[in-house]
Amino acid sequence: MPESHTECAPAEETSTQLALDRPWRVVVLNDPVNLMSYVVLVFQKVFGFDEPTARRHMLEVHERGRSVVWIGVREKAEAYVFTLQQWHLTAVLEEDEAH
Amino acid sequence: MKRIEIKLNLEAVAPLLDRIKESVGALEGKLAAPVRPPDSDAEMEAAWAGELLRDQKGDCQRFLAMFDQRFFADGTISLDEENAGPVLRACAAIRLNLRESAFGMVPDEALEGGKVSLEQMDQATQNAFEAYVFLATLQELIIENLDGEILS
């Protein structure tokens, strides 16, 4: 049994590493409460967007119900989701299936 | 440090504070917005929510601290880069709680489009809605006057 365990371990590590390496999407969902100007400000502050980019994402959230605001490594995506939730925006993390 | 002072109508705003404090009390133990941690792991979800709740409580305390002796003397509140961010977030949290607790029956489209009829609300709901509008006005004032400082 110890031998089997030893053989399996590298495979699990590889699988975990691949999952971490895959890109993840930070998605902001619409809510009827937060002001448009507030959402624009939060996008500027959290992601460093310029005003037109922040406004474009805000309008996408407002009109389509969601906007992908960032794509990248999982750890950083998680941090962004947490920060957006600190600002009371509804944000979720999704695996980027396009990659 | 950029600083703005806002003179509020004491008679209009003071009665709203009771309803706002009620929401702040409700937010002591729950998050204003639904939490969606990346994993469904219960331990991580609890840790994630716990940290968000601590931050939310801190922001609400900073918000209530604006309404000090000076406010009750002449209606003035002060905002600067130190408290503007926490106050903005607290306003968002309280508005979300007001919406959920006091006028959840109002359709999203009506709320977003500003098509809400006060006449159809009872007094308690009207009071909550006035607090909701006041907090939005405060957010707009902060964003218009302090956004450059907040972003720096």
Strand content of chain A: 15-25%
Number of strands of chain A: 3
Q: Could you tell me how far the N terminus lies from the C terminus of chain B, measured between alpha carbons in angstroms? A: 11 Å
Major sheet of chain B, described briefly? 2 strands, antiparallel
The fraction of residues assigned to DSSP E strands of chain B is 5-15%
Strand order of the biggest β-sheet of chain B: 1-2
Percentage of helical residues of chain B? 55-70%
- Our count of helices of chain A gives 4
Shape of chain A: globular
* Biggest sheet character of chain A: 3 strands, antiparallel
Number of strands of chain B: 2
Please mark out the parts of chain B with pLDDT under 50 across 5 or more consecutive residues, or reply none.
none
Measured by residues with Cβ under 8 Å of the partner chain's Cβ, the largest interface is: A-B, 24 and 29 residues
- Using the alpha-carbon principal axes, give the shape of chain B: globular
Protein structure class of chain A: alpha+beta
- Whole-angstrom Rg of chain B: 16 Å
- Helix content range of chain A: 55-70%
How do the strands of the widest beta sheet of chain A line up side by side?
Answer: 2-1-3
Distance between the termini of chain A: 37 Å
How would you sum up this structure, described in words?
The complex is a heterodimer of chains A (99) and B (152). Chain A is α+β, with helices and mostly antiparallel strands and 99 residues long. Helix content of chain A is 60%, strand content 19%. The longest helix of chain A has 20 residues. Chain B is mainly α and 152 residues long. Helix content of chain B is 66%, strand content 7%. A two-stranded antiparallel sheet of chain B has the order 1-2. Chain B is globular, with a radius of gyration of 16 Å. At the A-B interface, helix 2, helix 4 and strand 3 of A face helix 2, helix 4, helix 5 and helix 6 of B.
